[in-house]
Automatic annotation (TrEMBL):
InterPro entries: Acyl_CoA_acyltransferase, GNAT_dom, N-acetyltransferase
GO MF entries: acyltransferase activity, transferring groups other than amino-acyl groups
Stored SUPFAM superfamilies: Acyl-CoA N-acyltransferases (Nat) (SSF55729)
Superkingdom of origin organism: Bacteria
Pfam families assigned to the protein according to its UniProt record, in alphabetical order: Acetyltransf_3 (PF13302)
Natural source organism: Sphingomonas yantingensis
PANTHER family (UniProt xref): GNAT FAMILY, PUTATIVE (AFU_ORTHOLOGUE AFUA_3G00765)-RELATED-RELATED
Protein name per Swiss-Prot or TrEMBL: RimJ/RimL family protein N-acetyltransferase
Residue ranges constituting the N-acetyltransferase domain according to the UniProt record: 14-173
Swiss-Prot/TrEMBL keywords: Transferase
PROSITE patterns registered for this protein in UniProt: GNAT
Coiled coil: none
Bilayer-crossing regions: none
């Protein structure tokens, strides 16, 4: 992804800008949160320095946007996208501070990133999540991702060996999900 654009993205409530290691100061609250980190590949962070080191990792095939509220540059979460070896196929992931859960912020942020990567010509996005992570699964399904399968004993994590639910999204799926959302909104107003 090093050749891909990395623009600042704007939505009605959010600004998504490139995430930096300095975002560790505010994102530590999420990385230290036992519940938020339950299904992450590593356990909760114990220090801000640990979060800083995590955010400073050199990952040339990944872009990570810090989620900020319009008018406030402090990171409250992030959305990351990594291009895999197949080219024009990317994995997407996200995290949000618990204080901002259940407000539609992650869906809004992930939607903006989906728009960006499909506009760049990506042919497929995928996400993997623990089958027990019902919040993440509902988010993905609400955005039009399709469950493509469960990989058994895929990850060895801080909570043991875990399966992964693999979700995929194609541009046509995304267009259909957006059209469905517009229709639901139209029916509510009518």
């Amino acid at each position: 992804m090093t050749n891909r654009p990395f623009p600042t993205l704007r939505t009605a409530r959010l600004v998504l800008r490139p995430r930096t290691p300095d975002d560790a100061v505010t994102l530590f609250a999420a990385f230290a949160d036992v519940e938020a980190m339950r299904y992450w590949s590593t356990g909760p962070h114990e220090t801000v320095e640990q979060t800083h080191a995590y955010l400073a990792q050199d990952m040339p095939d990944w872009r990570a946007w810090a989620i900020t509220l319009s008018g406030d540059d402090r990171a409250i979460g992030f959305v990351s996208v990594g291009e895999d070896w197949k080219g024009n196929v990317s994995e997407i992931g996200y995290m949000l501070l618990r204080a901002h859960w259940r407000r539609g912020i992650v869906a809004e942020a992930v939607s903006a990133v989906i728009e960006q990567v499909f506009a760049e010509g990506q042919r497929r996005l995928y996400a993997d999540t623990d089958p027990e992570n019902t919040g993440s699964r509902a988010l993905l399904e609400g955005l039009g991702f399709k469950l493509e399968g469960v990989l058994r004993a895929e990850w060895e994590t801080h909570i043991g060996v875990r399966d992964t639910a693999l979700y995929g999204l194609l541009p046509d799926d995304w267009s259909a999900a957006r059209a469905e959302k517009i229709e639901r909104t139209r029916r509510k107003v009518a």
